[in-house]
């Protein structure tokens, strides 16, 4: 298995097999990613979205890769910064549960794009 | 390449029997426009409305803004590769209905934002309060998948811009602007002592509602690519981006890219403008490395002295922005970055998601979390329910009388990262 | 002519003309007159406002009896109901600066009356109050009084009259750290082109978004043989002997402490935390969770390390100014180096 998807998005769980499903929040997904990166797994996709609006999302899917002997310091920096930014931006805001289904859909679509970018034939892998 | 942008100043939009421009008034035959767009069988219903500067009108949720134009000389009318046949853009004459804009509205997903207020406080914050807006509210047929839905709305806007633009075909323009830059060799020979400058324009390229297109090619699929500035001014780049209302680059802003125009104004005087590199902002870290290395390589190959880099969005694109900056500065190429900030509602937080000591020259488009208070509108074009979404995220943002407190984040073009608008942030 | 706005002034025993260090223990008092700098300040108001009285308090008294001092001071201010309160200028005086800052914070928060103070940029009081009060930037010594008072008076005048303050560098106050969105004269792309041209022509330019500067410290070379090394334990977790004998502050620390732990196997039993920045339940249950003296001693017994250093160093990290942190670090580092310590375990919370 080359890639693993860490997600709390039920759509992604349904669609893909190589999923580490988190029963929890966006932040829990970030924390899981942090733990995995410290274990030496490659961080494949950036933990944050590309706009403020996507930070309101209840769901997030992030791709990690293979485990290495050495920890990648750049990956550590990215995930730690992302957690800080996520918390900063959620201060005084609420997660947008009203549109949860839409966020699940878009997160899943963005995940597909990421996997396509990785030339990974999804639905087949484990 | 030589491109003439011929501006016909539009002072009002009316509905009427024929679509035409007379004495600066654009008249649109609504039925004809609707029928034309309904050729696309994915469209169930279209409402067409006009919003004029100063009217107490709110448009929401805006998907894209497009400038209506017609090419009267040279190849490639419209948006080649997307709505018309492929052609080389950048040369010829274009008649522009300057001051008019096609605004598409359509909530592809419920959390979409993007507000244009035509009057009062809200008008200050968006450049599109100053244009006469022909607003298309597009409802697709049921059961359309989200990709087709997005494409339908995107295409409808482009086609409408072409349809309306045709009204300017035989109208004498009020002003004619000429944009001409020759080959690198020619320009360098002409201006041997001027510093060579490139513009790197980053595009969100991440998937559904997060896309941009160059001659119809999804920017996700490209390596960074070099354009003649005229190509973008002539319609080569269009927006498929429905998030990041405040700092996304609408199609209108590609057609009128302010960095390109302001660099053009200095070309041959203080600098030698060598072109535009379009750089995709991808989701994968490997992809980001590839893009940033490749962008820096292009700049080095062309041998430029300075580069302006503009971002699109906030969050993971901050990494790309600073990675490109680092690579260029380390190669001895001077950079200026244009971005916006996310320094919290009180303005006290760290403004970017990433930092780099090499980023010594940065232009800020303002704080996306800056709170603005928008009074209720007399008329809402689009989906009034989306107003609650704008206010969403925190308590007490939607008052009983309809007054809305929202972050600039929701306002189209407010904190433009191509420097299209006038906002900045200062330390107090 | 509009009614004059009322200013209440705060100074320490020295500027209140009571006396020097020997009077630093004096309790706060109130005089319905302009004392010391309040006099010069009053004339700088150009008749638009007036100082109605001066509060005076000893620096030591304030810092050691903060609650009592504040209670009195707030009551006086409440009773006299000024439009604005002025504290200092404190220049670079640490204790005076802390008093000016704490009073400013309390007055704004509890009485909702605006406060203007004056400080040198490195005054430890600055971080306590700059986001809530307006602090004029002064020189580091009282020699800058003549320059500071008109600046402060101008700030006071504007705030009292409800005028908006301009940029910090224009008005002479220290930035509060708020990035506000404003309109520029030129659009962003134009500013970018001009900035690039300035860079290309080696002219001066000013970034609109300065990157944060991080103070990085190069790590010391690795210890070659741990079994011969002396290791010290230092914490910013506020662990102190029960009763806090040196009265280390629970936030915005002004000092650090060192305690002989050579005879102990663990901190647990005689130590507790006074740190005001976290829930102390688990730390107090087992203080070694914050500063693991127990493990260090075990490693010493096992011979894994040569020796656990006999003194344990401690302070509180929360709210402590960068200036003080650098000072503490330098002082503690010097002692440890002179004592021949090879390595330090530094814990934070």
UniProtKB/TrEMBL annotation, chain A:
<protein>
    <recommendedName>
        <fullName>GrdX protein</fullName>
    </recommendedName>
</protein>
<dbReference type="InterPro" id="IPR047735">
    <property type="entry name" value="GrdX-like"/>
</dbReference>
From TrEMBL, chain B:
<dbReference type="GO" id="GO:0030699">
    <property type="term" value="F:glycine reductase activity"/>
</dbReference>
<protein>
    <submittedName>
        <fullName>Glycine reductase complex component B subunits alpha and beta</fullName>
        <ecNumber>1.21.4.2</ecNumber>
    </submittedName>
</protein>
<dbReference type="InterPro" id="IPR016585">
    <property type="entry name" value="Gly/sarc/bet_Rdtase_B_asu/bsu"/>
</dbReference>
<keyword id="KW-0670">Pyruvate</keyword>
<dbReference type="InterPro" id="IPR015417">
    <property type="entry name" value="Gly_reductase_pB_sua/b"/>
</dbReference>
<keyword id="KW-0560">Oxidoreductase</keyword>
<dbReference type="Pfam" id="PF09338">
    <property type="entry name" value="Gly_reductase"/>
</dbReference>
<keyword id="KW-0704">Schiff base</keyword>
<feature type="modified residue" description="Pyruvic acid (Cys)">
    <location>
        <position position="242"/>
    </location>
</feature>
<feature type="active site" description="Schiff-base intermediate with substrate; via pyruvic acid">
    <location>
        <position position="242"/>
    </location>
</feature>
């Amino acid at each position: 298995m080359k890639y693993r998807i860490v997600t709390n998005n039920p759509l992604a769980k349904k669609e893909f097999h190589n999923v580490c499903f988190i029963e929890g929040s966006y932040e829990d997904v970030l924390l899981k990613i942090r733990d995995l990166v410290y274990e030496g797994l490659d961080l494949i996709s950036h933990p944050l979205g590309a706009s403020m609006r996507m930070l309101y999302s209840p769901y997030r899917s992030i791709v990690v890769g293979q485990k290495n002997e050495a920890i990648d310091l750049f990956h550590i920096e990215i995930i730690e910064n992302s957690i800080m930014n996520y918390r900063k931006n959620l201060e005084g805001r609420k997660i947008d549960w009203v549109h949860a289904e839409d966020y699940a859909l878009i997160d899943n679509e963005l995940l597909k794009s990421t996997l396509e970018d990785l030339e990974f034939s999804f639905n087949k892998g484990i | 390449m030589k491109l003439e942008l011929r501006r016909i100043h539009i002072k009002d939009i009316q509905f009427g029997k024929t679509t035409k421009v007379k004495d600066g008034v654009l008249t649109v035959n609504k039925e004809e426009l609707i029928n034309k767009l309904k050729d696309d069988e994915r469209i169930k219903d279209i409402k067409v409305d006009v919003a004029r500067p100063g009217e107490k009108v709110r448009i929401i949720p805006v998907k894209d803004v497009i400038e209506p134009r017609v090419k009267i000389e040279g190849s490639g009318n419209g948006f080649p590769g997307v709505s018309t046949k492929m052609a080389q853009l950048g040369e010829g004459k274009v008649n522009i209905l300057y001051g008019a804009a096609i605004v598409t509205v359509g909530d592809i997903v419920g959390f979409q934002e993007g507000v244009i207020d035509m009057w009062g406080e809200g008008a200050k914050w968006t450049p599109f309060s100053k244009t006469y807006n022909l607003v298309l509210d597009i409802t697709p047929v049921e059961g359309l998948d989200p990709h087709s839905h997005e494409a339908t709305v995107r295409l409808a806007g482009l086609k409408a811009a072409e349809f309306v633009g045709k009204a300017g075909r035989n109208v004498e323009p009020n002003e004619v602007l000429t944009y001409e830059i020759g080959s690198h060799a020619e320009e360098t020979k002409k201006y041997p002592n001027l510093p060579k400058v490139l513009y790197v324009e980053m595009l969100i390229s991440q998937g559904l509602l997060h896309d941009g297109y160059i001659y119809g090619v999804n920017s996700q699929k490209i390596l960074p690519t070099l354009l003649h500035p005229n190509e973008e001014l002539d319609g080569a780049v269009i927006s498929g981006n429905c998030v990041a209302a405040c700092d996304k680059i609408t199609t209108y802003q590609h057609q009128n890219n302010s960095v390109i125009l302001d660099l053009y104004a200095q070309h041959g005087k203080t600098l030698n403008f060598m072109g535009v590199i379009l750089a995709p902002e991808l989701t994968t870290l490997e992809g980001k490395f590839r893009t940033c290395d490749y962008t820096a390589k292009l700049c080095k190959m062309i041998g430029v002295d300075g580069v302006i880099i503009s971002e699109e969005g906030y969050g993971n694109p901050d990494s790309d922005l600073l990675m490109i900056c680092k690579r260029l500065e380390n190669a001895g190429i001077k950079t200026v970055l244009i971005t916006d900030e996310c320094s919290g509602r009180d303005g006290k937080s760290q403004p970017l998601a990433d930092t780099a000591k090499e980023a010594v020259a940065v232009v800020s488009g303002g704080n996306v979390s800056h709170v603005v208070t928008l009074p209720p509108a007399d008329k809402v074009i689009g989906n009034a329910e989306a107003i609650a979404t704008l206010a969403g995220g925190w308590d007490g943002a939607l008052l009983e009388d309809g007054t809305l407190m929202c972050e600039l984040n929701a306002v189209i073009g407010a904190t433009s990262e191509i420097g299209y608008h006038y906002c900045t942030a200062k330390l107090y | 002519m509009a009614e004059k706005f009322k200013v209440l002034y705060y100074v320490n025993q020295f500027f209140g003309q009571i006396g020097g260090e020997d009077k630093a223990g004096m309790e706060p008092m109130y005089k319905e007159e302009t004392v010391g700098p309040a006099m010069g300040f009053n004339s700088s108001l150009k008749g638009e406002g007036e100082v109605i009285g001066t509060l005076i308090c000893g620096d030591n008294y304030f810092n050691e009896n903060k609650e009592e001092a504040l209670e009195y001071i707030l009551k006086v201010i409440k009773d006299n109901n000024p439009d604005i309160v002025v504290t200092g200028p404190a220049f670079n005086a640490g204790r005076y600066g802390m008093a000016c800052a704490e009073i400013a914070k309390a007055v704004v928060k509890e009485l909702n009356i605006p406060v203007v103070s004056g400080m040198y940029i490195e005054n430890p009081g600055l971080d306590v109050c700059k986001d809530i009060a307006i602090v004029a930037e002064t020189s580091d010594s009282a020699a800058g009084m003549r320059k500071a008072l008109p600046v402060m008076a101008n700030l006071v005048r504007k705030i009292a009259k409800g005028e908006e303050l301009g940029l910090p560098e224009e008005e002479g106050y220290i930035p509060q750290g708020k990035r506000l969105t404003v309109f520029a004269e030129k659009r962003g792309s134009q500013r970018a082109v001009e900035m690039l041209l300035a860079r290309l022509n080696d002219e001066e330019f000013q970034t609109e978004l300065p990157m944060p500067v991080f103070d990085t410290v190069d790590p010391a070379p690795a210890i070659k043989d741990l079994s011969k090394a002396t290791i010290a334990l230092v914490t910013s977790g506020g662990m102190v002997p029960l009763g806090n004998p040196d009265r280390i502050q629970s936030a915005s620390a002004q000092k650090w402490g060192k305690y002989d732990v050579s005879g102990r196997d663990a901190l647990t039993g005689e130590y507790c935390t006074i740190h005001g920045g976290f829930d102390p339940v688990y730390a107090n249950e087992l203080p070694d969770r914050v500063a693991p003296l127990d493990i260090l001693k075990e490693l010493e017994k096992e011979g894994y390390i040569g020796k656990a250093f006999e003194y344990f160093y401690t302070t509180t990290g929360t709210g402590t100014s960068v200036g003080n942190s650098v000072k503490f670090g330098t002082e503690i580092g010097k002692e440890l180096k002179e004592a021949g310590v090879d390595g330090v375990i530094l814990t934070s919370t």
